[in-house]
């Protein structure tokens, strides 16, 4: 057996409408076609990859401490213009934190405290 490629990432959210605004409007992701999920949630397309927002009452109510951003589990997304992404997120009220690694990347929290890393391609340069 060998792993071929990633399929999707599941992200737990507390308020689907608020999260749909962040992922759909602020980040500009495209919703996947309607699917009968059998639970409260939304899917977004990213090429051959998907992000699944799943409503859960098990969300930790306290936001992740900003000192630890990037040291915890997170989802990394490539962007074509890091400065434009930073500007868009900050104007929408989502503060960002530069990566301590020196890479062209930063971290941001979604409305439920999930951590996203946004970086430019080629990654790590």
TrEMBL record:
Tagged with keyword Cell membrane: no
Keywords: Dioxygenase, Oxidoreductase
Residue ranges occupied by any VOC domain in the UniProt entry: 5-121
A Gene Ontology molecular function term of the record: dioxygenase activity
One Pfam family recorded for the sequence: Glyoxalase
Keyword presence, Repeat: no
PROSITE patterns (UniProt xref): VOC (PS51819)
Domain of life of the native organism: Bacteria
Database matches in PANTHER family: GLYOXALASE FAMILY PROTEIN (PTHR21366), VOC DOMAIN-CONTAINING PROTEIN (PTHR21366:SF22)
Record's protein name: Glyoxalase/bleomycin resistance protein/dioxygenase
Lineage: Bacteria, Bacillati, Cyanobacteriota, Cyanophyceae, Gloeobacterales
């Amino acid at each position: 057996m060998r792993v071929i490629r990633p399929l999707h990432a599941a992200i737990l959210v507390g308020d689907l409408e608020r999260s749909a605004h962040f992922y759909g409007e602020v980040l500009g992701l495209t919703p996947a076609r309607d699917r009968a999920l059998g639970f409260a949630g939304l899917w977004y397309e990213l090429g051959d990859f998907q992000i699944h927002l799943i409503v859960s009452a098990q969300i930790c109510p306290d936001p992740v401490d900003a000192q630890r951003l990037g040291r915890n589990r997170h989802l990394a997304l490539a962007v074509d213009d890091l400065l434009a992404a930073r500007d868009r997120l900050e104007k929408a009220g989502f503060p960002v934190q530069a990566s301590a690694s020196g890479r062209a990347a930063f971290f941001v929290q979604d409305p439920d405290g999930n951590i996203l890393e946004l970086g430019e391609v080629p990654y790590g340069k």
